[in-house]
Design a protein that fits this description.
- The complex is a heterodimer of chains A (about 500) and B (about 300).
- Chain A is α/β, with parallel strands linked by helices and about 500 residues long.
- Helix content of chain A is about 40%, strand content about 15%.
- Chain A has 2 domains: about 250 residues, D-Maltodextrin-Binding Protein, domain 2 (3-Layer(aba) Sandwich), CATH 3.40.190; about 220 residues, Periplasmic binding protein-like II (D-Maltodextrin-Binding Protein, domain 2).
- Chain A has a 5-stranded mixed β-sheet with strand order 2-1-3-13-6.
- In chain A, a hairpin with a 4-residue loop joins strand 14 and strand 15.
- In chain A, about 45% of the residues are buried.
- Chain B has about 300 residues and is mainly α.
- Chain B folds into 2 domains: about 50 residues, no CATH class; about 190 residues, MetI-like fold (Orthogonal Bundle).
- Chain B starts with 13 loop residues before the first helix and ends in a 7-residue tail after the last helix.
- The chains are: A alpha/beta (about 500), B mainly alpha (about 300).
- At the A-B interface, helix 1, helix 3, helix 11 and strand 10 of A face helix 2, helix 6 and helix 13 of B.
Chain lengths: ~500, ~300
Amino acid sequence: MVKIRKAVSLFVCCALSMTFLLAGCKTQGSGKASSESGKASSEDLKPYNLVWYMRTTSAKGDARVTAKISDYLKKKINATITINNLGSDYATKIPVIISSGEKFDVCFTASWVADYHQNAIKGNFVNLTKTGLLDKYGKDLKKEIDPALLTSSSINGDIYAVPVNKEAAYAWAWTFNKAYLDKYNLDISNIKTLADAEPLFKIIHEKEPDIPTIVADKGFAMYNYLPYDPINGSASTLPGVIPLDGKSTKIVDQYELPEYQEYFATMHKFYQEGYIAKDAATNTADPNIEKSGKYFARQISWTPDAVGTPDVYGVTREAALIQKPAIFSSAGTGAMQAISNSSDDKERAMMFLNLLWSDKTLVNLVDYGEEGTDYVKVDDNTIDYPSGVTGKTSEYSNVSAWCVGNQRLSYVRKGIPADHWTKVADFNKQAVKSPALGFSFDNTNVKTQIAAMQNVLNQYLPSLAVGAVDPTTYLPQMVQKLKDNGMSDLLKEEQAQYDKWRTSKK
Amino acid sequence: MKNYRYRFRNQFSPVANAVLTLIAGLFAFVCVYPMLLCIGVSFTDEKSLARYGYRLIPKNFSTRAYEYVMFNSHQLLNSYIVTILITVIGTLLAISIVAMLAYPMSRPNFKYRNFYSFVVFFTMMFSGGLVPSYIINTQYYHLTNTIWAIILPACCSAFNVIILRTFFSSNVPASLIESAKIDGAGEFYAFLRIALPISGPGIATIALFLTIGYWNEWFNALLYINNNKLVPLQLLLVRIQNNLDMLQQTANIPGADKEAWIANLPSDTARMAMVLFSVGPIILAYPFFQRYFVKGMTIGAVKE
């Protein structure tokens, strides 16, 4: 009896330990074919399943639309596709996915998520120029993309991800709530600088003391309207800018420039007059304010048709540009698609990207879903929701068109003028090109200084930007702290890299 | 002689007592206040929130947030079910594994006792990190998008094992086990019928720790779950917050503020109501189990 029980116990122990061995058996490649043979493809390509990581939130109609996309791709390049919509988890998940070496083909990247620069340098993204993929399979793609965008997303002359073909230039502007403009008969055509808007603020603040005259939170960054290009990327507040007019090649600390000091002083005046909420410096963006429509002025980095039509809450705004439109060095890195080095079939991925940038059907399938079910055509290029469906109830309305492929080819939703893309093309043409277009700063040598300076900036800048504190006291303090934390090292490094890049360009 | 009549030898003087009570009271108030504010805001009317800000006693009472959350948000019901499943299955599984690992380690005549203690203790000090765990869980164990990705990683916590081991060794006398063996009990019999019943309090405490841990679990879900049907409660809240952060981040990208999903973000009051829903069961259950927690703090401490 005891012997039998001992034998059984021993057996159970052995069985449990076997699970360790089994776990070690990794199943073979994830690039297996997943479908029966489709119609004949253009070349004799083997079936392949692409995996695409997107930052859109998932929607009910995802499975249905993905099936349609797969069908379409099968016909073109004999590939099916799995789209993983990570939504707001994207920023946390994608670094883990990339560093764990998980096999996937394409992912969304930008300077502000899935750190484009770092991943490119580390070799996680395929070098599209050096491997020849861009030239061999991306011919249509290259024809479509604005060359300024391609240049601005290159690192040392090589492209590691394809920028989304959208607006390249933008201009900072004040936007005003049309409802209040009409109510008080206010004219905004003469507003050309930051301070020009002051008389309007005064009137609105007097007549409507309960609403925020200027909507501001800790992301308020109107100082970007000054004609300088931040070398560190569009969202960066680190010291190091270069004048847009190209007259000087010296990279300077913007916080010591007289124009910036003037900006901070003007904002402080606005704050003291009560145009800005008292706790603006510590607030995050509050969608409730926008939902209510009860506000007067907001900041925007303006591109054609950004405002002028009702937004998602039904509020219409009008813009007054206070900056000459420019293509900044970070223009292309706002939204890109990269091919991962862990992909099993990089050529197929490149073919897919080529289609995303040149094939109108595919772009609109991804952006808007199935015609008839998810959208109906109002005219040749405009679409709207089918009757009975709204933005809230639609099964497939979550894709951000500005994250995907070629926006020029995608339909526009009703409300946006049909000549939108011609306007954008003209806007890009007449914009000033930053002298740093194509330069990408590598921050490996100054990482500690950057971290320290970022802390200082997080401490001082939000309050200064909304004018909550007196700039004559606090701005010099901040500059001093930045200097103590390695600002000169950063500027030297930036200047050295910039000069090297400039001479190598010629 | 001074009036020591009503004081024990080590009691605080009245003054010290008052000051310490005041400090502890203030601290407790600071902890409780945000929760009270949360309750207050969840019962407020949305419009008066914009006008008057967050208030403890709502200016305009309204239960619309709760109606929205309970009847319109099927996602919340789904998450509730997922969280309950995870907690129940997780706690049962984890407690059995932890107990079965701790018991042999507590027996003095187990030959490899020191080896196992060392291994368990070592994992408490050093861990592989995020990326190695991710690689193991996704590429070798294939746990992505399954509920086991949330349950299994937290299953066998070294901390719990060591607490329970100490508890076993101090509460289950070796002589008791020996006498059971003399009477013909085997190992499993001794464990199930003799050691476990005596160790009720210890098991209960660890089970409580596990329950609270599984109820609040969101990070593993964030990493491994893509499927919306498997989202636990806490991850839902985290996602709403992340969505708002994403709004802030992409605010300056042309076209980003026209996206449809923005209109679907729950309002402030709905978010507060969701917070209360997810915290509610634990808060309501806490007074009943409080004494186990207090006891549990010292349960592994003293060894005879």
